[in-house]
Amino acid sequence: MKLFSCFMPLLLFLLQAVPGLGLPKDTLRCVGYHGFCFRSKSCPRPFAAFGTCAWRQKTCCIDTTSNFHTCQDEGGHCVPPPIKCLQEQEGPCPHREWKCCTEV
Prior knowledge:
antimicrobial, secreted, defensin, Anthopleurin-A, three-stranded antiparallel β-sheet, globular, CCR6 chemokine receptor binding, Gallinacin-11, Antimicrobial Peptide, Beta-defensin 2, Chain A, 2 domains
């Protein structure tokens, strides 16, 4: 029991010290796109839903008043990696590996 109580603070320190180790993947993706995690399933104005956070427990919301635009806002379509784009376009997709295409 003493051994466990000695290692617990070390484990907690490592979870805080190593970037990204303590956060779920969906939360990291949301924060990477300058999003915020809300408890409700719908986002308050001026935010728009952009996926999930905290192991799909919360909604990732992105501010629509900023200059941040998603792929669909720019008229594109998000497609998985096996599909080839005739013309790619700038803009993030809800799935990190997917790409934004204007023409498929």
